[in-house]
């Protein structure tokens, strides 16, 4: 410790680690605590649904084979294992169906799912209170998001598991009630244990990408174990990994700690209804609006000559028309729009193998075209401007415009829609009544509730 009682290190990390170590649940605004509950519920729903995918079922069996039981849940399926294994498996499942929360104002990506499963596993192992679990999750979210938004992630990297291990490591350290010095050590170790993720994985539609969020959670627990055993990090490991030619070439250290405890990045998060990559929603939302506006709420795909979108750069990247896998379908505006029009509304089945094999959907996807509007790209950090024009074979046209994707804070989904989403994702595992009860429990649990008992009572 330095003479003034702060941990030794760069000033911005002194400020951040001290704030993280000293902040209590009662210091958080009620609306931020509420936001944390909604995001944690969203992550749990995405994990439970993702664990039903055949690849995840096979991986879970293989990964846990021969291992001893432990205190941490593989969510929803009645298995208990070591926390680090549960964090990995649950984290991988949580991104499979593209239903997890995200945050365009945190440098992109999905901060919640990158630390949620480590937080849950550690809270079960330690038998933390529900309130301590929630506090750790919110502070970990803020730590990783602030680093991510203060740096400029290189486009070659997928944002998962880059800054995510920081958040997971911070959350686990918070559950251990560490002081500021140990929190700084955790920050510096966790920051340099991100992985070299590939953004191209989503463009090719390959599922190795789903390992990234699992590894983020794994590395958070791994980082904490290292610090507990005396391992040390760099003097400024955060800047080394995120501002000196690693994941980013620059980092604004002041921006990391700007208005700590006043401005909350977590409050800017979004929630999904469509089971696809976030930027694809820019087109799918407008297609859904067109269906709602059509007579009888239906549009015959064969009646469409072409559909044109003018949008920002990151959405333009998802312009692939030739889709041959379910996962690749989730990162294509042409396919997402075509399957929305064919099915008439959002559902998980829109992106399943049967939809990919459907010749009507495939044909319409080849008639959907996406171009970049440079003016829209300039403002895309704060707005997601998109134009759509449907040209019908009989000469009619339909045009629509959106400034914000649905689910953003400026264009939110109603709470009831998010509750229904949770039930839809988990009812095949728990049944509808228990799924509704679990969501109610997450949103209403008293902070003093022992988390291990909470998990057992709700069959997490």
Q: How would you sum up this structure, described in words?
A:
With 460 residues, this protein is an alpha+beta fold. It has two domains: 258 residues, 2-methylcitrate dehydratase PrpD; 125 residues, 2-Layer Sandwich (60s Ribosomal Protein L30, Chain: A), CATH 3.30.1330. It contains 22 helices and six strands. Strands 4-3-5-6 form a four-stranded mixed β-sheet. The chain has a two-stranded antiparallel ribbon with strand order 1-2. A hairpin with a 4-residue loop joins β1 and β2. α8 packs across α10. The longest helix is centred in the N-terminal third of the chain and has 21 residues. The model has no long low-confidence stretch (mean pLDDT 95).
Category by helix and strand content: alpha+beta
Helix content: 40-55%
Q: What is the residue-mean pLDDT, rounded to a whole number?
A: 95
What is the count of β-strands?
6
Task: Please report the number of helical segments.
Answer: 22
């Amino acid at each position: 410790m330095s003479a003034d009682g702060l941990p030794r290190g760069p000033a911005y990390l002194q400020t951040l680690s001290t704030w993280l170590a000293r902040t209590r649940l009662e210091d958080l605004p009620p609306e931020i605590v509420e936001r944390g509950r909604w995001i944690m519920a969203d992550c749990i729903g995405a994990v439970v649904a993702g664990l039903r995918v055949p690849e995840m079922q096979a991986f879970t069996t293989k990964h846990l084979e021969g291992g001893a039981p432990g205190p941490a849940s593989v969510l929803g399926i009645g298995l208990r294992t070591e926390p680090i294994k549960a964090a990995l498996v649950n984290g991988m499942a949580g991104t499979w169906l593209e239903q997890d929360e995200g945050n365009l104002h945190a440098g992109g990506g999905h901060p919640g799912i990158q630390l949620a499963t480590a937080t849950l596993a550690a809270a079960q192992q330690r038998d933390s209170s529900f309130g301590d679990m929630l506090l750790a999750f919110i502070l970990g979210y803020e730590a990783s998001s602030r680093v991510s938004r203060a740096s400029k992630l290189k486009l070659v990297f997928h944002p998962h598991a880059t800054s995510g291990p920081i958040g997971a490591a911070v959350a686990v350290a918070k559950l251990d009630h560490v002081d500021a010095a140990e929190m700084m050590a955790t920050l510096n170790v966790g920051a340099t244990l991100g992985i070299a993720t590939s953004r191209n994985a989503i463009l090719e539609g390959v599922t190795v990408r789903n390992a990234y969020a699992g590894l983020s959670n794994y590395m958070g627990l791994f980082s904490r174990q290292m610090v507990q055993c005396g391992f040390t990090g760099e003097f400024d490991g955060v800047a080394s990994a995120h501002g000196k030619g690693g994941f980013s070439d620059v980092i604004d250290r002041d921006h990391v700690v700007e208005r700590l405890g006043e401005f909350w990045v977590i409050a800017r998060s979004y929630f999904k209804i469509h089971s696809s990559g976030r930027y694809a929603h820019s087109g799918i939302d407008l297609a859904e609006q067109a269906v709602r506006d059509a007579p009888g709420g239906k549009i015959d795909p064969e009646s469409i000559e072409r559909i044109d979108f003018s949008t920002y750069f990151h959405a333009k990247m998802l312009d692939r028309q030739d889709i041959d896998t379910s996962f690749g379908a989730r990162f294509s505006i042409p396919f997402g729009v075509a399957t929305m029009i064919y099915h008439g509304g959002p559902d998980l089945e829109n992106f399943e193998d049967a939809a990919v094999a459907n010749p009507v959907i495939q044909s319409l996807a080849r008639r959907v075209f996406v171009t970049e509007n440079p003016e829209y790209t300039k403002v895309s950090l704060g707005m997601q401007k998109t134009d759509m024009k449907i040209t019908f074979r009989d000469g009619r046209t339909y045009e629509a415009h959106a400034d914000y994707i649905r689910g953003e804070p400026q264009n939110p989904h109603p709470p009831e829609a998010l509750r229904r989403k949770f039930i839809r994702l988990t009812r095949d595992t728990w049944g509808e009544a228990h799924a509704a009860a679990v969501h109610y429990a997450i949103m209403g649990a008293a902070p003093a509730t022992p988390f291990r008992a909470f998990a057992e009572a709700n069959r997490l």
